[in-house]
Specification:
Low-confidence stretches: 111-119
Oligomer: single chain
Mean pLDDT: 89
Number of helices: 3
Order of helices and strands: EEEEHEHEH
Distance between the termini: 34 Å
Radius of gyration: 13 Å
Structural class: alpha/beta
């Protein structure tokens, strides 16, 4: 199965707040193996901008931390699978865990505390 996975990122790590990520890493996966990875600047934070941006890049999946119900609804309408609640760790590690089926998902709902990003 081939996938193009969008991961909201900052400085090489998964960023916990979907819509406010400064970058998005797009990872092409073919037959369970990473074939390509591209980091792009995310759009300005506004309602619907991130799902539309991700869809425009041809993403099939989103691997992310927290996201609001509006983003969930829009991604589902665009036919993009959501893997929410992923840990804020290095992209390579979260991808390895995802592809190996060992990832441990936490809470994917976005609460008002999402803007705190302590290391």
């Amino acid at each position: 199965m081939n996938q193009k996975i969008a991961i909201p990122t900052c400085e090489g790590k998964l960023w916990q707040h979907f819509g406010k990520a400064p970058q998005v890493t797009f990872v092409t996966v073919e037959n369970g193996k990473v074939k390509d990875s591209v980091v792009m600047q995310a759009p300005e934070h506004e309602h619907g901008a991130m799902p539309k941006f991700i869809a425009a890049q041809g993403a099939t999946d989103v691997l992310c931390g927290g996201l609001g119900q509006g983003a969930v609804n829009m991604l589902q309408q665009l036919g993009i699978k959501i893997h929410g609640g992923a840990p804020a760790i290095a992209i390579e590690e979260v991808l390895t865990q995802y592809l190996n089926g060992t990832i441990v998902y936490g809470d994917s709902s976005c609460h008002h505390h999402c803007h705190h990003h302590e290391e």
